Amino acid sequence: MTIHDMPKGRTDGAVRFVVNGKTVNLTLDHRVTLLDALREHIGLTGSKKGCDHGQCGACTVMVNGRRINSCLSLAVMHEGDEITTIEGIGTPDALDPMQDAFIRHDGYQCGYCTPGQICSAKAVLEEIRQGIPSHVTADLDHVTFSDAEVRERMSGNLCRCGAYSNMLNAIREVEAGK
Amino acid sequence: MKFDRPAEANASDRLLVLGQPHSRVEGRLKTTGAAPYAYERQDVAEGQLYGYPLGAAISRGRILSMDTEAATAAPGVRAVVTTLDMDPLPKDSHNVNRLFGGADVEHYHQAIAVVVADTFEQARSATNLIKVEYHAEQATLDLSEVTPPETEPAADTGDFDTAFANAPVTLDEIYTTPAQTHAMMEPHASVAEWKDGKLTVWTSSQMIKWWRDALAKTLSLDVEDVRVESPYIGGGFGGKLFLRADAVLAALGSKATGRPVKLALPRPLMTNNTTHRAQTIQRIRLAADNDGKLIALGHDNLSNTPPGGDGEDATSQSLSFYGAPNMRIVNRVAEMKMPESNSMRAPGDAAGLMTLEIAMDEMAERLGMDPVEFRALNDTQVVPSNPKQKFSHRNFVDCLRHGAKEFGWTNPAPASRREGHWLIGQGMAGAYRGSPASTSGARVRLQADGRVIVETDMTDIGTGSYTILAQTAAEMMGLPIEKVEVRLGDSRYPVSSGSGGQFGAASSTAGLYAACVALRAQIAERLQADAATLDFRDGEVHDGTRSVSLASLASDGELVAEDKIEFGEFRSKEYELATFAAHFVETAVNAYTGEVRLRRMLAVCDAGRILNPITARSQVIGGMTMAVGAALMEHLEVDSGRAFFANHDLASYEVPVHLDIPEQTVIFMQQDDPYSTPLKAKGVGELGVCGVAAAVANAVYNATGVRVRDYPITLDRYLDRLPEV
């Protein structure tokens, strides 16, 4: 391909969505992922880029109450969406109980996968509460919290430091405290 | 401070803060996304542009031409720098393959160009417009095709051949381990600013000084004109020990544009562009008398490396782990043009113990012995390949016995236990990892508000450095941990050991100890008192008659002290310092499908004084988790026709996920080793990855009765051999 063969026409577009309660208006290159919009255009670098291919889960954010891999989603597709990132879950001075539990159970080491793990962990508890079954659910009509459910549902979030069993302890404690 | 004899009782022994289970001091930043990693340093240099790398599409050969016209004319592009624009850049001593420059291609995905543009999308898109003509040459990456080179044994004691030939019980088997990739979660990434002849790089580095020196050498700068900063590192495992292409490309991009440039290696480029753990083929020979005492131990290893490298020395632990009067240890390294094999977590021992500890299991069975007792019987308190050298401390036997008891080790017969569809097995293994230390410096600054600031170029790659250094300073200066601020990973700070080889925690805390001793001496001088009689506690210093607050001592300006620890030869020549563990694993193997599930894991570790039981435990469970990957799934697949690693992303190179990891228990024997450092501590970060894979392999054997000697233990290697159902 040469420069002359490149596609013609509009390559950017306006989009408006809500991030952590604040409305954001952006004009973005259509190729910008939701992850890069958050990190590079809004300055919210808490969501991490581990693979940019939906293979690691470090970019997990909540969109309209569901967790997604934000690297697999183009920003301009999110017109009107409500997005919550790790920065919207809690701050260093006002931790969410899940963040606090991760600290006390040492559910992380290098910290790079951690925001994605915490977003997923909160979503997992909500999914179980809503009765959404998983691959390991024995009775599809009665979804209940268990270690197996957590391990299965968290498996899209890789942690190479290997803090999985500590994360399970943290998630268990948050569930028990509710 | 010179550490030239074993430590005596000292101020670190109080263990008011050290040794206590403090949560990570940077925890609030990491869990809220506020900790800044390299690619996120939007604050440090105005006007950052985006760089994107191009990797070579052949494994060996020459670039004939590169057409950059379309890329240069693409929207937003500020510069295109290609490898043909310059001679091969000088190579630092740690790098085996070169990083950039010249027409020769040494391996697949070697960096051959960088495009700099206003946005990430523009840079990525324009990179795809570069047209490259190659002259490709045949390359190989296949170790099984290699004729092993003749190599002098690393140890040849007694008369190995005669002893092996005449022994009543012997084992002679071939084992293989595959190439593995670090797969740390944060890709290699840098922001570089080349301005007025000076270069600043904000990067992800385990070893600040190595990177600084290498950047100076590679880019022909004075080392004083290079600054490196790396306060947060999203995992390294050896993959970020020395300079990589991301920093070089970002620097070249900045030089070309006059603007700061940031660049991350795309995940699919990382495996072949950076380093990996080499594949190995290992022959192990064991011979024992009828009572189970080892008579001979032979370990012959073959791995591969680019010319000039070391490969993976899987024999290293065999020189020291088990006592045998006749030993022959040979490490062979085949040189080939290939992606760089180099250090990955516990280089050598991790791959060596994967196989040696299967061999020990097999040998125990041939002897009709419990594998725990067989190992305990062959324990040694001197280095078998050099019996004059004693271990400073070695409590491996207690690890074995204590672990067996805690785990409920029953040494069941192979394929003897079944629960429903599942075959249940127990497996165990021993672990050995050296405990080196290296020179490490630090600076401490007592502030007017009574706080102490610690500055050292030490790094925290998830290991807990921030926390154990804060604990060290707090202990030494009699402060609560909240009164200590630790600043790491900046080349403006005193040079430390850095993070690698399981030496970081022991060395860097010892260096900080030395700096704190210097600060205490300064305070004593100011109080005209004898430093040895001063008692530092609760933010005050007491000399028996009076109490002075630390804050008041700095009221006219901060007190600054700096020192480094240097380790004497007694530590490495007279004594052997090492860490030991016993690992126990229970597996369930599906009788119909062969699926392996782990049920529980236990590690009992003998690793000196534990500076922080939380972070030390996390290091061990992290190693155990990585070892589960090594046992059951991790395998860089060699494309033998094209000589590259084909599964170069996180979808095709599988690492353990939540569902793979069961309950993990870690027990520390908690015994000080005064021969190690003034803090009597040793490393623990690599011990956890050693031996565990073999414990899993032995448990799979115990469950099924099927022995697999080639890692990883995937279905294709044993499904057709499972017991009849």
CATH superfamily annotation of the largest domain in chain A? Beta-grasp domain
Backbone CA Rg of chain B: 27 Å
Shape of chain B: globular
Quickly count the helices of chain B.
15
Q: Percent range for helical residues of chain B?
A: 10-25%
Structural class by sheet pairing and helices of chain B: alpha+beta
Most extensive interface, chain pair and sizes: A-B, 65 and 72 residues
**CATH topology of the largest domain in chain A, anyone?**
Ubiquitin-like (UB roll)
| Outline of chain A | globular
Strand content of chain B: 25-35%
How many structural domains are formed by the residues of chain A? 2
Instruction: Provide the structure class of chain A.
Output: alpha+beta
Element order, helices and strands of chain A?
EEHEEEHHHHH
- Number of separate strands of chain B: 33
Description:
The complex is a heterodimer of chains A (178) and B (725). Chain A has 178 residues and is α+β, with helices and mostly antiparallel strands. Helices cover 31% and strands 15% of the residues of chain A. Chain A has helices at 34-41, 86-89, 97-104, 114-129, 147-153, 164-176; strands at 12-19, 22-29, 60-63, 66-69, 82-84. In chain A, helix 3 (97-104) packs across helix 6 (164-176). Chain B is an alpha+beta fold and 725 residues long. Chain B folds into 3 domains: 2-11 and 437-571, Aldehyde Oxidoreductase, domain 4 (2-Layer Sandwich); 38-139 and 188-265, Aldehyde oxidase/xanthine dehydrogenase, molybdopterin binding domain (Aldehyde Oxidoreductase, domain 4, 2-Layer Sandwich), CATH 3.30.365; 280-436 and 573-721, 2-Layer Sandwich (Aldehyde Oxidoreductase, domain 4), CATH 3.30.365. A 7-stranded mixed sheet of chain B has the order 4-6-2-13-10-11-12. In chain B, strands 1-27-21-22-23 form a 5-stranded mixed sheet. In chain B, a hairpin with a 4-residue loop joins strand 31 and strand 32 (644-645). Chain B starts with a strand and ends in a 21-residue tail after the last helix. The chains are: A alpha+beta (178), B alpha+beta (725). At the A-B interface, helix 1, helix 2, helix 3, helix 4 and helix 5 of A face helix 1, helix 2, helix 3 and helix 14 of B.
